[in-house]
Structures are given as C-alpha cells and as structure tokens.
## 1
Amino acid sequence: MTKIRPIHGGNLSWATAIACCPISSILDFSASINPLGIPKSAIATIQNNLTQLSNYPDPSYTNLRNILAQYHQINPDYILPGNGSAELLSYVGRELANTEVTYLLTPAFHDYIRALEAFHGKIQGFLIDFDPSLPPFKRGEFLRDLPASFTQCNFKNNSGFLLNNPHNPTGKLFKKEEIKKYLDQFALVVIDEAFMDFLPPDQDQSLISLVKDYPNLIILRSLTKFYAIPGLRIGYAITQPDRLKKWQKWRDPWSVNILADLVAQTVIKDQEFREKTLKWLPPTRLKLYQELGKIKGLYPFNSSANFLLVKTDISSLKLQEKLLKNYQILIRDCLSFPELGEHYFRIAVKLEDENNKLLNALNLLI
Ligand SMILES: Cc1ncc(COP(=O)(O)O)c(C=O)c1O
C-alpha cells in the first residue's frame, strides 16, 4: 500500500489505501482511459498469441510500422514504436536538452518536466489562457490560438518547443495552421498528440502530414488511452528516419513486447471500435459538462478530449478524499500542475451510468 500522493492519474493502489477497499471497487475517473474498455479484437489477439511470448519481438517492428504507415499515409521509415509514448518522451527530453531552452505551455503534463530534467534541459513555461471567470458559453470554446505571451515572445536561437495537442489537463485544442506558423522558429518542435485519436477526422489538428517537410518536427502518439491498454504500454513517434535511427541506438532492441506489437497491429484496423468511441464521446462529454456546471461551486471547462478540467470553490483534496472514502470514486487532483493547485480537479469522461454516479456523489457532498 502506498500513501505517497501520486503525480499521475490511475494510481489505484494509492486510492485503495485511502478508500480501504479492493482495487476492483474503485471507480476511476483519474486516468483518462476510454471507458468502452479493451477492444474485443485486442483481447482475441492476446488470447490467440500467448505462446508467442516464447519468441523475441521483431526488433524492427516491420509489420506494425507498415500498418501505422498506411493508417497515417506516411513512409514506415518515419515511424518508431515505443513502450508507451512515455518511453519516447525520454528521447525527446534528451534531444531537447541540447537546445538553449525548451518552451512549453503550462500547466504541463508532469512527465515533460521529468524527461527534460533527467537530461538537465532548461524549461520556460507560458500559461495557457483559460479563464474560469468567463461565462460558460465562452469557457466552453476549446479550439484555441496559442497564448499571446507565447506568440509575442522573442524566442532564443537554438530553442525547442514542446506542445501537447489536445492539451492535458485543459482539453484545449490548438489549430494546426496556427502551430505551423512557428515551426521555422525552433531547432526542435515536439507535438504530443496522445489524445488526438479522440477527435473525429473532420476536427483533427494533427501535424503528422508536415513531418516530411520539417526535419525538426517530432510527433508522439499513444495507443494506451484510446484503446484502453495503458498496462500493455504502446505508443509511437513520427519524425524523419535519421533521428529514429539515432533513438534506436539509445535503447534496447525490443522495447515493445510482442503482445503490445500484435495488439497495436490489430486495433489500428479496428474501425468498428473507433466509430463506437467517436459516437460515444461528444454527447456524453457534453452532458457531463452541463451537469457539472449545474453544481454550485464547480466550473467545468469544455474539452476536445476525453477528460474535463473542473475548477472548484472547495478544496479538491478534501473532495477527493470524501469521494474516495464515501463512494470509492477517484478523481485526479491537480497538485502536480503547480499553476492549478488545490482548486482544480480533472475527470475522465466515462459511461453515462458511471458519470451519473459521480454526479450524484458530488451533489450529495457539495
Ligand atoms: C499528455 C500525455 N502524453 C503522454 C502520456 C503517456 O502515455 P503512454 O501511456 O502512451 O505512455 C500521457 C499519459 O497520461 C499523457 O497524459
């Protein structure tokens, strides 16, 4: 049992120590994982390939790279699978640490700081403009320009830019054309698109199509959120081949295990699961956003992703503790985002009956 407050969502052993219940009783809103669960196609792949565990994975991950290449309409040499996008983030940290300074938007995902600090990289943050005092219809706009403090900055020579799009934890989405304007200004630009799969194709703002024209551009993608497989660990980087060859020399030859490799190949082709998810998310998220907004003292932000950031008049830590102890519900406090602190929390959008359990509990507690 661990009592140290976690800096990431989904830490169920910490939650059970507070709630005094088994892990299976926790209703976890803290990790932003697709609540439709692991796709059936993924489970079948695991069950049918257990004996493959006696083989090493293909160190060049050729089949997976070909499938991803077809999906993104890009050359397979531009793709490197990783043990979650978190593994690839470490190589990004190592690359960015060679620049004078890395600019990022804050609040920022804590692992960016971890990856940069591990290699003694310098960091400068720009606060994203999200204003909870705006009226709800304005607060609800999530397609954003980059903040003025960033766009008006005189960037240092040989600097890097690390952007999360859509942005965790606010759920804001930055326009591809807006980001594109800044690609020439940095030695290295990294766009973490861990949640981009949750956008329907007509709203997608991915920069993957620009990678072949910009040797200084790296895109990170995760398969763990959309396909509900964070325990399996699988993500990938898209950037020019020379950089990926270098990364391969930095790591062990079989970072991605054989089941993660095979499951990724399967789920990318699972059109039915993708459609089901894109059908579930927008109306469920809107309803949750609207219902949260009706609770006195809570101010949700609309989001383009599968989570909502909520400002709260009362301490989110007290709320988190009461939700855990009384209802075995886990929400994500925002203490790991120093710009947010104790008066914010983040919740995943889950299935409607699960969201209703959270709403009922909040209505009783607040
Ligand atoms: C913004 C962001 N990027 C990357 C990751 C890491 O994802 P993965 O499971 O692919 O390592 C996370 C996980 O929470 C995240 O929130």
## 2
Amino acid sequence: MSEILARFIGTGDSESLDYYNTNLLVSTQAKNLLVDCGWTAKQALRDQGLTIKDIDAIFITHVHGDHVFGLERFGFESRYVHGGHRIKLYACESVLDPLWNECLKGCMGYSSDGKNELDDFFDIVPVSERFFWNGLGFEVFPTTHTVGKPSFGVRLPGRFTFTADTNAIPELSLIVQDDPYVFHDVYVSGDTHPAHATALELKRLYPSDLLGRIYAVHYGDDIMEQTHKLEGFAGWVRQGALFEW
Ligand SMILES: [Zn+2]
Ligand SMILES: [Zn+2]
C-alpha cells in the first residue's frame, strides 16, 4: 500500500469552471493536508468523497481567491458544524498577515461568539523555509507571481515539487533537484501573461530534462484545444489523478 498519496482536487486557473481551483491534497497515515483552499475547495473535496472534517491541515501559498476563499467555509464549518474540529493552518508570515487583515477579517472578524482572530478558527503554524506535518518534511521556496504579493511553492523532497502560481523560475532546476514530479503553473490559453508562466516561456527557459518532469496545472477550460503547446513537457494533470509513493 502506498505511504503517500497526492491528488489535485482541482486543476483549473482562476477563471475555470470545468476543472475547479488548483488545490492539492496530500494524504498519509489516514490524514489529509490541503495545499491551498480556493472557492471551489468544498465542492471539489465532495467530488473526491471527502468533507471539511477530513482535512487535518492546510498550507497556503499566496492570497488569491482561487487559493484562499475556501478558508471562510473551512473556518466557520470546522468550528460550528463539525464540533470544534481544528485545522492546522501553515503559511509564511508574509502571507498570514494579509490573509487575515486584508482578506478574511471582513467576513470572519465577528461571529455569534463576538470578535474573532484567525486563531479562533485555525491552529496557526508560521512557516519559514520548511515545515513538518504528520511525519513528512516539506520545503518552501519563494516564487514570482504578482508584483508586491508574497507567493511560495512547496516541495516534498524526492517526491514532488509544486510551484503553485508563478512566472518562470530561472533557478528551478536547483530547487527541484531530482524530484520526479514537478507540478507547475502553466498558462496555455496564450503565449504571454503578466503573472503566470506560459508554455512557450517555459520551453524557452527550462532545460529539456526539467521540462520532461513538468506536469502542467492551473490551466484554462480550453486545455483540450491547447495540449499541442505542451510538447516536451511530462504532460498535464487531470483533475483527481492520483500520484503515489
Ligand atoms: Zn491561482
Ligand atoms: Zn494567484
């Protein structure tokens, strides 16, 4: 039996309706870590036969709706519907501050219990370069996504690297080392984008060895018409596809 499972409960870009938000579920020893929690996360989990109560921890890569808007539901429902189920919330300090003060506070700052802080809903675990969850050691690295907005990728050494949202990362070969799976944000609907790597850019910038390990995620609903752009890549991740170690 596999010790570690990874599956994307969604693989779409921020506009996608067909593939849900790009959120990654990592499972080991009967516990589940969600990497990012967008506005489709609850429904996407249901499609995998899971509920909010099945989630033990969440790591947040950056503050965009398709990566954090699900937290309002996960916070309220774990606290008030699932009997005080506590989810661990991992994120870098530079993400935690805007996550609460500029994103969630408006809808979660007050409830029937009165004034709330983020730790009334989640067990917060600030992260710098790495974090440990349920026996697994993850590494975190900065990415270049939106100007002025901190964003991070995450790596489970020897298993996978997940860039989350990013432009091309020139030093990515050094980061991923020999990881067999590199899940990378790839915009396929056009050849330029200010905030997301395009297939054309990655082909130009990355060595073929790295490109051959890259599985595209965070693509548009037109992916079926754009797969020819992914020649030289390992492929693209289907929603719900399982990776095992
Ligand atoms: Zn996104
Ligand atoms: Zn984003």
## 3
Amino acid sequence: MNATTPLWALPAASDTASRVDALFLVVLAVTGAVTLAIFAVMAVFAIRYRRGSPAQRASPPTQSRVVELTWTFTPLAVFLCFFAWAALVYGSFYRADPAAMTIYVVGKQWMWKAQHANGRREIDELHLPAGQPVRLVLSSEDVIHSFFVPAFRIKQDAVPGRYTAISFTPTRPGVYRLHCAEYCGTDHANMGGRVYVMQPAAFAQWLEQGPSGASLAAQGFELFRRLGCSGCHDARSSVHAPELDGVYGRTVHLADGRTIVADEPYLRDSILLPKKDVVAGFEPIMPSFQGQVSEADLSALISFLKSLQPGGPSGK
Ligand code: HEC
Ligand SMILES: [Cu+2]
C-alpha cells in the first residue's frame, strides 16, 4: 500500500482482516437497511398525513402490545447476535495456533523493534511469511504504545511491565503500513514503519541473511549463565531451585495454593517479580532481575526457557 491508496481500497492482508471486514460489513448493511427503512416510513407518513390531505385521523390507535414487543425484542436479538459474533472474532485474536511462529516486538519511543527466533532483529520493519500463523509477543521499554497494522485489522497495546500477545496469519504478500496507535510523546506520529509479507521461500531466505548471530534461545542460554541463573537452577547445583526443563506450559503449584500455567507472562514475572508467584516447596530466595535485564534480554531468556522442552530445543 502506498500513500495514494484511498482508505476504502485498504487490502485485507490477514485472516483477521477478512473476519473483521465480514462483521463490519454485515453490521453496516443491517444498520444501514434499518436507517433507510425508517426514512422511507417517515417520508410516506409525511406525505400521507400532510396538512389538508383526506387521510383518516379519527381515533388513532394508542396501544399495541404486539408492536411494542416486536420493536423491543427484535433489535435485542439482532444486537445479541452481533455481540456473539464480535466476541468470537475478538477471541480469535488471542487464540494462537499451536504451530504459530513467535516474534517478540518491543515498543520504544519512537520505534518498533522485532526479534525473530533465529536471532535476526529489525527496527521499524517486520518481515512475515504468507500463510504461516504468527504470534507477536509485545512489550514496551517506556510508555504504552499500540501496535497497529491497518491491513491486518490488528491493533494491540504494548504495555510497560507486561506481555501482551496477538495472533494472526498474513495471507497476502505485499508491503503494508505499521503505526503506533497510542499517543506516546513528541514523535508518536512518526513511530511506525513497514510490514513485508513475503512468499514463504523468500521469507526463509530473508531470515538467513543479515548479520548471522546466535539464535534467540542461544543468546538466552548465554545470559542464563552470565546472570548466574544456572548457579541455582542447574541440576548439579546445591541450591534447592526448580528444574527448568519443560517449564514452559507446565502447570505450576504455588506456595499460596494457587496453580498457574507457565506461559510467557509467568516466566517474565518469575524473573522480574520472583516473590509474586513462589513455587510450592521452595524458599523465596530467587533475587529479582529487575533493572538488570532489558526487554531484549528477557525475550532471549524466555526463548531459552521455552526451548528446554522434553522434545529437545525448538527455539520457537
Ligand atoms: C539464588 C538462586 C536463584 C537464582 C540466581 C535464580 N533463581 Fe530462579 N528460582 C529460584 C528458586 C528457589 C525458585 C523457586 C521459588 C520461586 O518461585 O521464587 C526459582 C523459580 C524460578 C522460576 C519458576 C520455575 C517454575 O517451576 O515455575 C523460573 C522460570 C526461574 N526461577 C528462572 C530463573 C532465571 C531465568 C534466572 C536468572 C535470570 C534465575 N531463575 C535465577 C532460585 C534462583
Ligand atoms: Cu508509540
């Protein structure tokens, strides 16, 4: 899409876009039809009962239960259908395909930084393969930003201190605009860039190019040793700390009786706020790494923890 493309010609470049558009068009059609019908009836009545017309005006009806029930419950039913449909569409943004490719995206005044699993990084650009489900895990280094790609019809806040995620499948190769949709300071209007949806083969080639560094999980392993995590969490360590193999997706029993599924937000909190969710059977001796790790470090550490799956490192 370029600057001269009119808004109504905005392409639908993802599965979410088609779902949002279908809902929007049906709501527009139904409310538009009702609006036209109301204006038509108004016009008919204005003409029929105009001053001096021979219309019958004696004893107008004052009450009709059938009419009142109909105009109350028909719109209610129609709007509840819209609500249910919209809830399904909304829910689909947050239900990731198990095969989805995870990309970490960090908002920062005033840029978007992305990290792919193989270690490739980009700024104000995001390359994606067509037809492959992706899941963006968003965070922020300063204030609230909002990741907005109109051609995908997705808009998701990136909030400091926590992870948010959104899932979709890009469907149409092309170049689309990326914006920040949450006022975040002086250069907010310039915060954004381009999303490139590529054919899978071209994407695989792109991913291999560029500065060849370690994968995100390998960078995480490096940090895991450098920050001293392994000193406690290594199987040979004398410190009583949980075994981290297969931690991602595990159901964790906490000291206060709650159970929680170890997802990315949980792993994040384990590192930054270890006292928040203390694992049952362990002493709360783990120090907080708040201020010692950047958002980029966190995504590397979490990728590493996720790669510690019983099935072997996956790097997803
Ligand atoms: C001083 C020892 C120590 C260090 C250093 C340490 N941890 Fe821990 N960690 C623990 C203990 C003890 C627990 C269990 C109690 C708790 O939940 O706070 C734990 C819990 C965790 C959990 C939750 C595990 C589960 O089964 O749910 C994760 C994830 C974790 N640590 C990751 C890390 C990472 C990553 C680092 C390095 C950045 C690190 N830890 C450094 C001792 C440590
Ligand atoms: Cu912003």
